[in-house]
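Board notes (copied after class):
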Amino acid sequence: MEMAITFHNSSFKSPFINPSSNPKPKFLFPTQLSGLISSPLSSFNSKTCLKFGSRTFTKPVKCSVSQAAKPAIEKRSQLKRRSDIRNIAIVAHVDHGKTTLVDAMLKQSKVFRDNQFVQERVMDSNDLERERGITILSKNTSITYKDTKINIIDTPGHSDFGGEVERILNMVEGVLLVVDSVEGPMPQTRFVLKKALEFGHAVVVVVNKIDRPSARPDFVINSTFELFIELNASDEQCDFQAIYASGIKGKAGLSADNLAEDLGPLFESIIRRIPGPHIDKDGALQMLATNIEYDEHKGRIAIGRLHAGVLLKGMEVRVCTSEDSCRYARISELFVYEKFSKTPVERVEAGDICAVCGIEDIQIGETIADKAFGKPLPAIKVEEPTVKMAFSINTSPFVGREGKYVTSRNLRDRLYHELERNLAMRVEDGETADTFIVSGRGTLHITILIENMRREGYEFMVGPPKVINKKVADKLLEPYEVIF
């Protein structure tokens, strides 16, 4: 893989660049710098210097692990690794082709029959997702490649649904960062990559849509590598594997001009570069509920990765929010993800992603633990909301003509029910008994809630969106976006 090096030290002047003749910085690859750099890129540390000819630069090129990632990495080093499973999340900026890439991965893994009709973007099962052409909810599936089970989580690509991305990163050990071959890294690329690096996850960069005539793979790899350094990635994370792919054609390769006839190079990179889950197989049962689904027959279904121990059907467990807040329940049914559906099983071992039935009041962020010795895992934390809107009952003369749920009780129940699975949203009572303040990550985040409620038969009024300000050290601050 080729990676570019850039230097943000204003005092550095490369002897190979003439500013008068070339005003734009020239990217130099490690292969071009062989013999000039005293040590290879992978061995840079706090004591490494660069030598160019007779000049020596004491300021190092350093990728350091962020403070949030260190405790997680130190803790994982004490656990054992399971080699027959890979848990990955596919993250990208909106419309960079990750859901289409998942389609190709499913088809080539023989998840569907040869004569089975499969619609495009099969993971986007929600009506709103299909109408808008974007992913809104994160979803689980799995494939099998050379006796290795690969659990795949497709995630939203819009920053307003960043809460979906943040919580599922607790379930995986690595991510596929999909980047468009023309646009390169975009704002949401920066956001999801930052979160993945903070968790200490391994990253495989997929330069997608490489078959576009205007593709510029070298620029994309250079920009992505700069982003890794800017986000304080570790040395191992900076040494990422780059895969060039065309999701719509189902092809991938290690170079932009030499693609294989299938996605074999991508699967091989996942097995080789994404580590297996760190588990405590003989420890007390621990599973963090990361997602919640609802079934008319089975009730609430908790989805998460089993961190330690063994989970059995019919087992009595303890459900903990904190050390002092626990209750008891029994597992009625147990499922794992096999291909494109849930498969009932009697037993799940640590490291696998599973779905648990029987706990009617379980919430996202709670821990399913051993009845006698289990302890809660750290709660899921997501970014705070940035926009709020007022929801109130319809008081116009035409009330009751378009919906069947029109009272404040109906509105209250529906809004607070949304909080059970939407971690990034907040709801609080307004100034009157008929008004509620709904806060979200952005206007699109709240707009999707409004559209879903309208389709469910709720009739209500909404006010204009307002930015949420915060007071820090007697200063009034407002949220902002980083544009690069």
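Comment from the instructor: The chain has four domains: 1-62, 69-278, 280-370, 387-472. Residues 83 and 276 are 5 Å apart (CA to CA).
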